[in-house]
Amino acid sequence: MNNFWQKLKKPILALAPMAGITDSAFRQMCKLGGADVLYTEFVSTDAIVYESKKTFGMLKFSESEKPVVVQIFGKKPEHYFKSVKVLSELGYDGVDINFGCPAYKVVKSGGGVKLMLNLDLVKELVQAACEASQIPVSLKVRASIEDKATKVKITALDLVEKIKDLPVAAIMVHGRSFEKPFDGELDINSIIQVKEAFSAVVLANGGVYTPEIAKSLLEQTGADGLGIARGAWGKPWIFQQIRDYLGIGKYRVSEWSEIKKTMLKHAKLTFQSKGEHGLVELRKQLAWYVKGLPKAAELRSKLVRVNSLEDIQGILKNN
């Protein structure tokens, strides 16, 4: 098995998986922006087994994205085995299992972070994936989740201890709990504990919005790299900024003329892969690019109504 994780220069800067965000166009933009590894949106193992056309449409990627990791979720070991066999043959560099998603719909179905409450099942799922896979298997977990019935907190370290005898290549730890999924201070200790207990690659994730935060998180945790999610919203160049800051202590801030070129490139890639309906989906991301800029409110009100490449070109040309 070709374990690409072992060949990456540290610190590894990865685009973390985000549902409805990390499609092929966004991944390509982040690759251009300096990301080392790209994660897909998560896809259902059930949908792969039942050959969902929509899901297989989401699985398309460009060779320029590599190394690219496909993320899966579900709760049936037999579906993990079957789906990972399929994914191993599609050209991905790795497969990642989601044990971290806090979304209501996913948790209600028993997936995502909810799986951390059943570590025996977690091990079955990871083992099924490892047995089926021809590519490295990685995991994404949360700092913790509390079992409402017993009031017992299950931590990322508990999960790692459960699966440490399996050939897992990397773990991304989101340093927030299920109960506070996106707000508040990171549980830095949860990441440190995993780094000390897990012998392969550990990526720290959560709240990396600036190069300064990135440097601090790496120093505090000793992690092998970072998973960057919301920090890349409207800033796919953040990966290069982080690398520059770590290397020389400073980084460039993109000018409006550069931002416009990036937006148009993103729109064209989206149109190529999804057509005009993809541009409608892209509206929120276009709005992220102008956050904090002069006339941001005016630009945002126009960008959230675009329907075509011509609409986007017109707005950018006149501003």
UniProtKB/TrEMBL annotation:
Record keywords, A-Z: Flavoprotein, FMN, NADP, Nucleotide-binding, Oxidoreductase, RNA-binding, tRNA processing, tRNA-binding
Active site: 101
Domain DUS-like FMN-binding: 15-310
Transmembrane segments: none
Top-rank lineage group of the source organism: Bacteria
GO molecular function (one): flavin adenine dinucleotide binding
Reactions that this protein is recorded to catalyse: a 5,6-dihydrouridine in tRNA + NADP(+) = a uridine in tRNA + NADPH + H(+); a 5,6-dihydrouridine in tRNA + NAD(+) = a uridine in tRNA + NADH + H(+)
InterPro entries hit by this protein: Aldolase_TIM, DUS-like_FMN-bd, DUS_fam, tRNA-dHydroUridine_Synthase_C
Name of the molecule in the record: tRNA-dihydrouridine synthase
Similarity section: Belongs to the dus family.
EC category: oxidoreductase
Cofactor(s) this protein requires: FMN
Pfam families attached to this UniProt entry: Dus (PF01207)
Enzyme nomenclature, EC number: 1.3.1.-
Record bears the keyword RNA-binding: yes
Organism from which the protein derives: Candidatus Kerfeldbacteria bacterium CG08_land_8_20_14_0_20_43_14
Function noted in UniProt: Catalyzes the synthesis of 5,6-dihydrouridine (D), a modified base found in the D-loop of most tRNAs, via the reduction of the C5-C6 double bond in target uridines.
Annotated positions binding FMN: 17-19, 71, 140, 174, 205-207, 229-230
